[in-house]
Amino acid sequence: MTDFQPIQLIPPVAHAAPDAEDTARADLYGLLATLLYRAPDAALLHHIAANRAHGEDAATPLGDAWNDLCDAASVTTAEQASDEYQQLFVGVGKPEVLLYGSYYQTGFLNERPLVALRDDLARYGLVRQDNVSETEDHIATLCEVMRFLVAGEDAGVSNLAEQQHFFSRHLQSWVETLCDSAAAHPQACLYARVAALLKAFMAVEAIALEMH
């Protein structure tokens, strides 16, 4: 079975995804996983700021949300990003914005949705590492699993049917609530834009996966 980590569950893949659209989807899932697992460093902030969408891509809700994040990244230091991440998602005691699916689905942590999630991860051959403190229903982990299902090389697991199943079962019902909570936090600046990008991307994914 594959060692399970919130980030870099699978190595970056350039050719496993069957087309450019899936490659872009996998890359965005991977970026969101990284941003939601830890604050970005200076290099990642610079990379985001330097890759604005242009033309038709910029004229969509997803492109608009991406460019808003680019603008925020261009004026945010790594120290500011770290402070904001700590304020929103770590804090002292209970975080001000929780990143765990079970909480949004049931009102509590470590509830029945986590059991169902672990069943699917086991079916995919994914095992959480002992040194990972976050439970598997962390939003970063779920984004990374979606990247795996989009861009992995094992067609028996990484296929459209499993993407549809995992998205509808473990993300679709609650992720918009998380995004709204993060965006509405008075201390959210960079992460208000991350939340808006996640929300826009999830809306696109919901439509695209239902159409197939």
Protein topology:
Layout: E1 2-4, H1 20-37, H2 42-49, H3 61-74, H4 78-90, H5 101-106, H6 112-124, E2 126-128, H7 139-151, H8 160-170, H9 175-184, H10 190-211
Parallel strand pairs: 1-2
Helix pairs in contact: 1-7, 2-3, 3-10, 7-8, 9-10
Organism: Cupriavidus basilensis
Protein name: Putative formate dehydrogenase-specific chaperone
Pfam families: Nitrate_red_del
CATH superfamily: TorD-like
Low-confidence stretches: 1-17
Strand order of the largest sheet: 1-2
Structural class: mainly alpha
N to C succession of SSEs: EHHHHHHEHHHH
Number of strands: 2
* Percent helix range: 55-70%
Counting structural domains, the number is 1
The proportion of strand residues reads under 5%
CA radius of gyration: 16 Å
What is the CATH architecture assignment?
Orthogonal Bundle
The coarse overall form would be: globular
CATH level-1 class: Mainly Alpha
Q: In whole angstroms, how far apart are the ends?
A: 30 Å
User: Could you report the average pLDDT, rounded to the nearest whole number?
Assistant: 89
* CATH fold category name: TorD-like
Question: What characterizes the major β-sheet?
Answer: 2 strands, parallel
Q: What characteristics describe this protein?
A:
mainly alpha; TorD-like; two-stranded parallel ribbon; 60% helix; globular; disordered N terminus
